[in-house]
Amino acid sequence: MTAGELSDIGRTEGHGASALWRAMTAADLDRILAIADIVHPDYPEERGVFEERLALYPAGCRVAECRGEAIGYGVMHPGRLGVPLPLDTPLGGLSADADCLYLHDIALLPEARGTGLGAAVLGYAHGLAAREGWRWLALTSTPRARSYWDRVGFTPYADGGPALAAKLASYGGGMSYMTAPVRA
Question: What is the C-alpha to C-alpha distance for residues 171 and 184, in angstroms, rounded to an integer?
Fold first, then answer.
């Protein structure tokens, strides 16, 4: 898929767009892992991490597709503010005391960036969190993605302390745990 082929990508499902976000299925996992290898080579995760999140919270698993080819994905699940898991760690179940929607990963191939797909899946996340009654979105940002998250309203979480710092260290240096209030 070239940048030229992506120039007419739509931003949401249902508008006759050539690219859209749809529900993820188990059949998508090989392509999701291939995209993860391209987008996040320094942050590898095992297939089981994605399989488990899809099984536990399918509403939070999305695929960006253009002309039948996956070009990105979004994985999100209920979480607790200031308590992300270390990199490449299964959830083990959904938290009964969840107070946020945790954006585990939103990844777009380089040629799909700047097309509005990031904004569309972020809008989906806000809507999902609002429907579930959570007031916050949370994520762990890589150093390269930090400026994007700053631009879309996320701010560093200040209340994490040493436990949060230790979990962020599992990713390597420069990581930021960030939150944003849910937009209704």
Answer: 31
**CA–CA separation, 167 and 119 (whole Å):** 27
Cα 107 to the center of its chain, rounded Å:
7
Mean pLDDT of the chain: 90
User: What are 20-70's pLDDT values in tens digits?
Assistant: 999 999 999 999 999 999 999 999 999 999 999 999 999 999 999 999 999
Q: What is the pLDDT of residues 100-114, one digit of tens each?
A: 999 999 999 999 998
Q: What is the DSSP string of 124-177?
A: HHHHHHHHHT--EEEEEE-TTTHHHHHHTT-EE-S--HHHHHHHHHTT-TT-EE
Classify strands 100-108 and 136-141 as parallel, antiparallel or unpaired: parallel
- Rounded-to-integer distance, Cα 26 and Cα 47, Å: 11
Residue 6's Cβ-count burial label (10 Å; 0-12, 13-18, 19+) is: buried
For residue 161, what are the contacts with CB-CB under 8 A and spacing of at least 6?
none
